[in-house]
Design goal:
Elements: E1 3-8, E2 13-18, H1 19-34, E3 42-48, E4 54-60, H2 85-133
Antiparallel strand pairs: 1-2, 3-4
Helix pairs in contact: 1-2
The structure holds zinc ion.
């Protein structure tokens, strides 16, 4: 049976998920990973390096990825908005939040399954004991 370690945020430790729950989880994670930003809206921005030199590049408005090589600034005169690093941070936070939600869903599924297994085995034991008394 497939077994997969995932992090249980409520109990702050790793737990295993099993079988078709683990398989569904892996499929969901693959879908999630393929849903990266499509970089549909891009803005030309001025990026200031640590050295204080600037580079002119096209950046995705949604995730902040640089979508072009450094452009020759003399070819594109005029004002350009500055690169905003918080766009990248927000995107990373957004993705982490979504991934966490996904993991929580499968942890909850596995716990429900575990509870059901315990109940079933208790029922079975009760029945067995009732049978033994007859
Ligand atoms: Zn993007």
């Amino acid at each position: 049976m497939k077994r997969k370690a995932v992090f249980d945020y409520d109990e702050d430790k790793s737990i295993f998920i099993y079988g078709e729950i683990a398989e569904a989880y892996e499929k969901d994670v693959a879908d999630f990973d393929s849903m990266e930003c499509k970089h549909e809206k891009v803005t030309r921005r001025l990026w200031t390096l640590n050295s204080k030199a600037t580079q002119l590049k096209d950046f995705c408005d949604f995730c902040g990825k640089d979508m072009s090589k450094a452009l020759k600034q003399s070819d594109f005169p005029g004002e350009h908005p500055p690169f905003d690093d918080s766009v990248r941070r927000h995107y990373v936070e957004l993705r982490e939040g979504e991934k966490k939600k996904l993991v929580r869903k499968y942890v909850a599924l596995q716990k429900a399954r575990d509870r059901k297994l315990v109940e079933d085995s208790e029922n079975w034991r009760d029945e067995y004991q009732a049978y033994r008394r007859t």
